[in-house]
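Expect chain and fold; thus:
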Amino acid sequence: MSELFINLIERLSVIITLAFFISKTKLFRNVIKQDLTLRQKIGLIIGFGLFGIIGTYWGIPIKGAIANSRVVGPAIAGIIGGPTIGLLAGLIAGVHRAWLGGFTAVACGISTTVEGLIAGILARRFPEKRFNVAFGILTGMSIETLQMIIILLLARPFDDAFSLVKIIGLPMILVNGIGIGVFLLILESTVKEKEHIGAVYAEKALNIANLTLPILREGLNMKTAAEVARIILNKTDADAVALTDKSIILAHVGSGEDHHLSGTSIKTTATAKALNNGVLTVVLNKEAIGCSNSGCKLASAVIAPLFIKNEVVGALKLYYNKPDKIGEFTIIFIEGLSRLISTQLELSMLESQAKLLARAELKALQAQINPHFLFNSLNTIVALCRINPDQARELIIKLSEYFRRNLREWEPLIPLAEELKNVELYLTFEKARFSNKLLVDLNIDDKVKEVLVPPFAVETLVENAVKHGILPKKGGLIQINAKLQDKKAVIEVVDNGIGLSEDAKIGVGLSNLKERLRNLFREEGQFYLSSKEDGGTISRLIIPLLSKEALR
C-alpha cells in the first residue's frame, strides 16, 4: 500500500505541475470568474473532462482495475463551474473509463460522473470556501470514499471488488483529496494574485486621477495635456504618453517626443483608427503604429478614446518600446484611466457651462434694472430740487454711482462688503422716497464681510422687502443680518411689512436668484422665504464659503 501511495503521489505531482502552468494562462484566469460565458463553460467541461482522462491513463493498473487521479478533473470543474459543469466533465471522463473495460468499468464510470456533480453541489453550498485548501481536501476525500462505496455496490464479483478497495481505497482517498486541495490552493493563489494586481492598478489609476483633477478643470488643451501626460508617464511603466484631440497631438512626452511634436497633426494610423471608431485599440508592432519616422522606437501602444457625452473628443495613448509589455491588466488599467479622464473632462465642461450661465444670468439681471425704481428716483430728485437742492444734488451723484456700479462687469462672486455698498445706494433713494419713514438696521458680523456672494443677491432681497412688505404700509423697518454659522454665511433680510399671503408666489427676481444659487453652489447654496409670527417677512440666504479660484 505504501508503494501505491508513493506512485500515486508521483503521478499526481505531474498533474498538479501541469495545472500550475495552466493556471497562469489568460484563458484560465478568465474561467475562474463567477459569471462564465457559454464558451467558457464548454471549455471547462471539455478541458477538465480531458484532465480526468489523463488521470486515468496516468493511473496504476491493479487487479484488473486502475488506481488513478481521474476524479481531480471533474471535481475541479464542479467547484469552479457548478454542479452541471462538474456532472458533464465527470461524464466525459466516466464514459471513457467505462469504455476501457474491466470489472470496475461501470462502477468507476458512474462514480466519476457523480463525483463531479457532488463537488459542484458542495461548492454551491459553501461558495465562500470553494477555493479553500481544507474544503478541497475534505471534498476530495468525501467523493473518493463515495467512489469506493459505489465500487463495492456495483462491481462484481464482490470479493474482487472488496479486495481491490482494501488496496486502493485509503491511498486514493488521501492522495486525491490532497490533490484537489493543492489544485484549489493554486486557484486561490491565482485569484488573490489577480485581485492584488487589480487593486494595485486601481490605486494607481485613482492616484493619477487625483493629481490630474485640478489640472483638467481647465479642460483639455496643450498646456493641461502636457501636465497630465507627464504625470501618467511618471506613475506608470510606459515609455511614452500622449494626449490628442481629434486632429492634433496636444502633448507627447517620453520616447519619440523628438518627432511626435505637440501641435502637429496626428502621425499614427492606429490613433486615427481609434478616434474614428471610438474603440480602445491595442497595437503590438511598429508597422501597426504607423509612424513615418524610421528611427522611432515605439513598438506597441494602447490607444483609448476620450469621450464627452458619448462623443469622441480625443485619445489617451500609452506607448512602449517593447511589444511584450502590454498585458491583460495593462489594457484594463488604461481603459479605466481613460474613463476617469473622460469623466473629468465632462465635469470640466459642465462647470464651464454653469459659469457661463451664471455670467449670462448676471448680465440679464443688469439689463433689467427696474424702470419703476429709476422713475421713482428721478421724481424724488425733482421734488427735492425745490425744497432741498443739496439733497437733490447728492441723490443725483449717488444715482450716477448706482448705475455705474450696476452696469459694470461683475465677477460671479463678490465680497459681501461690496454687495452691501449696492444695497446702501439703493436704500438711499428708498429712504428719500419714503420721507425717512423707512428705517434700516444693519447687523453684520465683521467675519462675514469678506464672504463671497453673488452680485445683487442681497439687493434683490431688500428690493423685494421694500416693494412687497414696506410699500403697502407706507413705511417700516428693514433689518439686514449676516453671520457665520457651520462654515457657511447666513444672510437675512427681515421686514415688518404686511407679510406673505397664503397664496403668495415667488416673483421673477427671487426665482432667478434661486437659480443663480443652484448654478454657483449646487445644493450648498440655499434660499428660504417665510412669514414672521408677529407680521412681516424673513428672507434668508445660505452661502458656502468659497474662494474666487474655486470658480475658475
Observations:
- The longest strand covers residues 311-320.
- The chain has three domains: 1-194, 218-362, 410-544.
- The chain has 17 helices and 14 strands.
